[in-house]
TrEMBL record:
The keyword Hydrolase applies. GO terms for molecular function: hydrolase activity. It comes from Streptomyces argenteolus. NCBIfam families: aman2_put (TIGR01180). SUPFAM superfamilies: Six-hairpin glycosidases. The lineage of its organism: Bacteria, Bacillati, Actinomycetota, Actinomycetes, Kitasatosporales. This is GH92 family glycosyl hydrolase. Residues 45-306 form the Glycosyl hydrolase family 92 N-terminal domain. Residues 312-795 form the Glycosyl hydrolase family domain. Keywords: Hydrolase, Signal. InterPro entries: 6-hairpin_glycosidase_sf, GH-type_carb-bd, GH92_a_mannosidase_put, GH92_N, Glyco_hydro_92, PNGase, TAT_signal.
Length: 811
């Protein structure tokens, strides 16, 4: 088998082809050629089907930017307690049991979260309880993708039964046109208890006099069926209310509970529980309304939702969708809202496929955070009580997949939508105050779910502040997060939910502060090595934040804690081929956890030592030094992206190499900038962009994780990437498009010009920042906080001299 140096030789062979063409530091770039026109109608390039296969777990339904309502199908594979994918829709499953009102983009647990109140247009008489139809043999229908259309803000589907549904939404409400065959019974089923994870309780009331259907579901249980601690989350934490009104009278009504059908009834209730399979099958409640389709086979429904009250759902509907508004009207407004949001980045040039990948990724990135406050500002608190947004806060947001999002999605949000970012930061602070000062790492609606590991909120809010976000109580938030990081909490000794959903947010903090690492045998966490690395990233970010706030003593303490990753770096740990120096878990007595293998996940969360060894974005120079120097580290990084024969290995499936489907290593392609070999970042990122991402349902490499994987693509296509959490610095790569403008609120736009950008020019030859030549492969905070211009000269071969001087490397 060839040795690792063959990988380095492969890079060297490419570099040897370099022909210097005046691309020296300080060179003035030639005037740009006529720029390609910038996209003015970005929704034309959005394909909501991207990511609905290949484990992307996106959903194709109707949603507005940051919307509360997300109206999308719930599919079935013949088990009413499960679906084909985490969010209820998998492109390869072409049978559905309803159109549900709420979804979370790209959650990884299956089933993931929400999927509340599936509403099913059913052709036929209701002669038995739909809950008793546990295999979805009767009250479900097949469909063809040829009869399905998804665009931003609208979803349309024709079912094999002959019924059709056309849906459009505002932020908290929606309107639907249902049509039925004229010669068959026409009914709408409200499966009020049938959320993706089940429910504790549900209720429905049918008001025939006012043509209304109202109800609610008490549910939650995100990741509640997960094997590694999921039982901890088999509990309720929110109630979703809905109010639906119709344009015509009901011809019939009925309700059901479990196996009992009640034709003519107008009230019903009952939950399903949070089990799965046979333990839950046949349970639940709902109701239906029937229509006379002999002369008029169209039914229009308007629906509002709220997490606060029935009155809130009705007020949201009343304020957002007027009675006379059609699906077309609401859809046009939705498309305009998405065009405004997506126009925050206008690209020029590139192919149709590249623009489709880019704008769909931006669309997925800006789906969240999600509104949970009503139009009057009320929302459900983490203490289970109703609250109102704080003074100056426009809305309360939720759905925080912290362990995922802090690496890319929150930076994109801060860069493009600082007002939303600030309200989101305030929202998380509000939740923490309602939760006894505890900041949970994975928040769904108003529930603390504890999913994953580390303290990602600290890294998130520190990044927001560094990037110029100020519309939140940043002093109070910092003090609260600093307290969580320094004062042990009783939950830190709990093993409830472990390993995947450990209750403690800074588990066994006293031991961590004493030992300077999370001892694997007593950490009460999902892997002592992973916990140490995550906390080191969070603490380094808190240190940067404290420094910006002028709190120098706290800054120094947290900055020092940011170096504690060194205490789980074992210079003697090897892979059997002569390479040594890996992150490895340790026990309380200081001994290394054995047996050790770089391809093992022992001590880690959803990753291996081979991946986590690179997860030190706050101290890349220190990591390189620990490995034996930048050149040694770069050769090891070469082997992380290549097989021993020098061929690429960037699609996942190899425990020793790069995995584009999960977060711990997604920053790794950008580490070459700090190692003095930025041309390798350029070619590696381009390889991933070109081969791992794409168009069509399989266009995402894995769980989108609330826009994280999509945000990685957006940044990479722009030739930018966040340097480290808690910083506004950006690393530079080669842009995919010849031109781009980041249109930012209150000025401070960022303009990117790369006239040579195409498939044959993946390398940077020279860069100007605001008209001045730069020999650095990164920018400081001024570009983000003040805006500016980046001008690139790209080449078809690497410039191995640009941005390589040790003094100019990112730290």
């Amino acid at each position: 088998m060839p040795s690792r140096p063959s990988v380095a030789r492969a890079f060297t062979a490419r570099a040897a082809a370099l022909v210097l063409t005046g691309a020296l530091a300080g060179a003035v770039l030639p005037p740009a050629a006529q720029a390609a026109p910038l996209v003015t109608h970005p929704t034309a390039y959005v394909d909501p089907m991207i990511g609905t296969a290949n484990g992307g777990n996106t959903y194709p339904g109707a949603v507005r930017p940051y919307g509360m309502i997300a109206w999308s199908p719930t599919s079935t594979t013949g088990d009413q307690t499960s679906t084909g994918a985490a969010n209820g829709y998998e492109y390869g499953v072409t049978r559905m049991r309803g159109l549900s009102l709420t979804h979370v983009n790209g959650a990884g647990c299956n089933p993931g979260a929400a999927g509340d109140v599936p509403i099913m247009p059913f052709v036929g008489d209701v002669t038995s309880s739909p809950s008793a139809d546990s295999k979805d043999a009767v009250y479900a229908s097949g469909f063809s993708h040829a009869d399905e259309r998804a665009v931003p803000g609208r979803y349309t589907v024709g079912l094999d039964s002959g019924a059709t549904a056309d849906l459009a939404v505002s932020e908290r409400a929606g309107v639907a046109d249902f049509s039925f065959p004229a010669d068959k019974p026409a009914n709408l089923l409200f499966r009020v208890s049938n959320s993706l994870n089940g429910s504790e309780d549900a209720e429905i009331e049918i008001d025939t006099a006012h043509r209304k259907v109202t109800g609610s579901v008490l549910t939650g249980a995100f990741c509640g069926r997960r094997a590694n601690g999921g039982t901890n989350n088999r509990k309720s934490y929110y109630r979703l209310y809905f109010s639906a009104s119709f344009d015509r009278d009901f011809a019939s009504t009925g309700t059901w509970r479990d196996g009992t059908l009640a034709p003519g009834a107008t009230r019903g209730s009952g939950g399903e529980g949070y089990a799965t399979g046979a333990d839950r099958a046949g349970r639940g409640s709902g109701g239906w309304v029937g229509f006379d389709a002999s002369d008029d086979y169209d039914v229009r429904m308007r629906i509002g939702i709220s997490y606060v009250s029935q009155a809130g759902a009705e007020a949201n509907l009343r304020k957002e969708i007027a009675p006379g508004k059609s699906v077309d009207d609401v859809a046009r407004a939705g498309a305009a809202a998405w065009d405004r949001e997506l126009a925050s980045v206008r690209v020029g040039g590139g192919s149709d496929a590249q623009r489709t990948s880019f704008y769909t990724a931006l669309y997925h990135s800006l789906m969240q955070p999600n509104l949970i406050s009503d139009t009057d500002g009320r929302y459900p608190g983490m203490d289970g009580k109703p609250h109102r947004v704080t003074r100056g806060q426009k809305a309360q947001y939720s759905n925080f997949s912290g362990w995922d999002q802090y690496r890319a999605q929150i930076q994109l949000l801060a860069l493009l939508k600082p007002r939303i970012a600030g309200d989101f930061a305030q929202s998380l602070y509000n939740f923490a105050r309602q939760n006894g000062g505890v900041w949970d790492r994975w928040v769904h609606i108003n529930g603390a779910t504890h999913v994953m590991t580390g303290d990602p909120t600290a890294a998130t809010l520190a990044t927001f502040y560094a990037m110029g976000v100020r519309n939140f109580d940043y002093e109070g938030a910092f003090e609260s997060l600093a307290r969580q990081a320094t004062v042990p909490h009783p939950d830190g000794f709990s093993d409830a939910g472990c390993p995947g959903q450990c209750t403690g947010q800074r588990p066994n903090l006293a031991q961590y502060l004493e030992s300077h690492y999370a001892a694997h045998d007593v950490c009460h966490c999902w892997g002592g090595a992973a916990e140490t690395l995550e906390d080191a990233v969070a603490d380094a970010a808190l240190g940067r934040w404290a420094r910006l706030l002028g709190r120098d003593e706290e800054a120094a303490a947290f900055e020092e804690r940011g170096t504690w990753w060194r205490n789980v770096f074992n210079p003697e740990a090897g892979d059997g081929s002569g390479t040594t120096g890996y992150i490895q878990a340790r026990d309380l007595d200081g001994s290394w956890v054995t047996p050790f293998s770089p391809g093992s996940d022992r001590g880690f969360a959803q990753g291996t030592s081979a991946t986590y060894t690179w997860m030190v974005p706050q101290d890349v120079q220190g990591l390189a030094e620990a490995m034996g120097g930048r050149d040694v580290a770069a050769k090891r990084l070469d082997a992380f992206f290549h097989k021993p024969d020098g061929s690429w290995s960037v699609k996942g499936g190899d425990a020793l190499r790069y995995d584009p489907t999960n977060e711990p290593g997604i920053h790794a392609p950008w580490l070459y900038n700090a190692l003095g070999q930025p041309w390798k970042t350029q070619e590696t990122v381009r390889e991933i962009v070109a081969t791992v991402y794409g168009t069509g349902p399989r266009g995402l490499p894995g769980n989108d994780d609330l826009g994280t994987m999509s945000a990685w693509y957006v940044f990479s296509a722009l030739g930018l990437y966040p340097r480290t959490p808690g910083s506004a610095g950006l690393l530079l790569g080669a842009p995919l498009f010849p031109s781009a403008v980041l249109d930012r609120p209150k000025g401070g736009d960022i303009t990117i010009s790369a006239p040579q950008a195409d498939a044959t020019h993946p390398y940077i030859d020279a860069v100007e920042v605001n008209g001045r030549a730069s020999d650095r492969s990164w920018t400081d905070a001024r570009l983000v906080t003040g805006g500016g211009e980046l001008t690139y000269r790209l080449a078809d071969r690497p410039n191995t001299s640009w941005a390589t001087r040790p003094a100019d490397l990112p730290r």
